[in-house]
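Predict the 3D structure for this chain.
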Amino acid sequence: MWIFTFHMPLFVMVTGYFAKSNLFGGAGRKILLQIAMQYIIFQTIYLAMDALLFHVHNTHYSYFAPYLLLWFLASHIFWRLLLIMLHKLTPLQQVITAVLLGVLVGYLPVDGVWLSISRTFVFFPFFIIGYHFSYSRLQVLFTHKIKIVALTTSVLLFIWIAISGLNISPAGFMAI
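Done. Predicted structure below.
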């Protein structure tokens, strides 16, 4: 449980970081096409395998509903497109917009599976943060005091999860 508190946001942040060099222009279009082709190929394979062998319950047999782990490829395409649309805003405005969009999408009366819309917008701020990440700025901000606070928070979270076990609910996080 402890690793689940940060592993996907961190992975999306790293994805955003590596999008710096190839978000715009011909390189950006080439990467978008590569991701889209990977999505189409693997979605086809997974859907065929599910129909023939796996028979996973509640599977949507559609290219608009990513099969299990393929949500990441679908979301990656949308993160890139959304960031291109927001490129005229400052980094802070982009993050604020992404957070607001993530909250608003939670109110849409749609199944979050379709186009992985829920995950796309929930993780979008992390993609933006990764895109604008600078190691030199991190070194300035990451003082000894911040390191101790981060370590203490991580250890306390680990202990809380170890004591609570799998009985952690979203309501528990709201009570903090």
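The chain is about 70% helix and 0% strand.
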